Structure to design on (338 residues):
């Protein structure tokens, strides 16, 4: 809106200059409107055509005033207007409108509050996984950069209810609080939890006292970049080969391999079967790392072949994205297809 207002002001200034100059020539040289407009145009453009009337001293003084006022000014105005259209402003507005309409229809999506260093890494992972998400960011320059990457964005404060409403918090699946201050993350988590009780919330914590406060506010999990960084440095020192494997085999930019949690649905092909009979590895090529039964609080790692799969059980597997999608199909409720 600021750009549009500025261009409108420049156009109005140009019209005012033409109007004043044309009116002045009509009065001083007793010209018709068309002749006066002609005099104005040739004077402002400095093309040097012959005047349409005898120039009086008053007309000469007025012409000097028009030239001094318009030379440079008109060129500046026209260059600014041309730049406005050259940048494809209307194309950008159309893209922004399309993006806002896409956000209005989002469901089971993720919301990322903050696109700083931490939030930007979350965004990269979401883009790689091709999951639906929207970013809330207060810095317009950051918003512009994300929009250029076709990332759905909302310009605003993630601690405000109206901004979360625009991000369709009631229909969202997860919320990532990655703002720069613990206080902002705390307030964002509290507001998000009040607006959607079923929301899965992960929050960034900086101070060592923040995780407890964030969990009390409604966060399911908290992440401390400093703590993770320290663990990573220690692991690279003590277990360099294992760390290299995790970073360069599992967590590559293309995510060649991925860790995933899959829930077993009732009436699925895997339900009410032991692992051996379910034959997950044979059907998908995935490696089953752990199983968590609904009644348990912990995962059972390296489950045996006789481990029974029941409805709402969750299994942790590792493999390629295509293999994981195959497992999702095997674990879904077959009655939903009917």
């Amino acid at each position: 809106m600021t750009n549009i207002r500025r261009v409108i002001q420049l156009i109005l200034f140009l019209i005012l200059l033409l109007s004043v100059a044309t009116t002045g020539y009509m009065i001083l040289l007793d010209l018709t409107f068309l002749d006066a407009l002609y005099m104005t145009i040739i004077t402002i453009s400095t093309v040097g055509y012959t005047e349409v009337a005898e120039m009086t001293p008053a007309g000469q003084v007025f012409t000097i005033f028009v030239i001094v006022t318009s030379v440079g000014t008109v060129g500046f105005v026209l260059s600014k207007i041309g730049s406005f259209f050259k940048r494809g402003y209307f194309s950008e507005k159309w893209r922004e409108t399309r993006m806002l309409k896409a956000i209005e229809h989002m469901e089971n999506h993720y919301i990322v509050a903050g696109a700083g260093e931490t939030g930007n890494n979350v965004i990269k992972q979401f883009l790689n996984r091709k999951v639906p998400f929207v970013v809330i960011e207060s810095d317009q320059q950051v918003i512009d950069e994300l929009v250029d990457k076709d990332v759905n964005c909302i310009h605003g404060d993630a601690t405000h209810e109206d901004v979360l409403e625009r991000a369709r918090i009631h229909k969202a699946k997860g919320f990532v609080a990655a703002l720069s201050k613990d206080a902002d993350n705390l307030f964002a988590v509290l507001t998000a939890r009040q607006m959607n009780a079923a929301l899965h919330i992960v929050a960034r914590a900086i101070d060592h006292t923040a995780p407890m406060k964030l969990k009390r506010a409604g966060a399911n999990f908290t992440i401390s970049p400093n703590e993770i960084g320290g663990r990573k440095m220690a692991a690279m020192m003590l277990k360099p080969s294992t760390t290299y494997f995790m970073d360069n085999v599992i967590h590559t930019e293309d995510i060649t391999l991925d860790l995933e949690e899959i829930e077993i649905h009732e009436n699925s092909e895997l339900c009410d079967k032991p692992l051996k009979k379910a034959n997950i590895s044979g059907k998908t090529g995935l490696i089953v790392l752990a199983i968590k039964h609904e009644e348990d609080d912990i995962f059972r790692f390296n489950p045996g072949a006789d481990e029974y799969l029941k409805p709402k059980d969750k299994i942790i597997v590792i493999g390629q994205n295509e293999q994981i999608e195959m497992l999702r199909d095997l674990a879904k409720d077959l009655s939903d297809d009917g």
Observations:
- The mean pLDDT is 85.
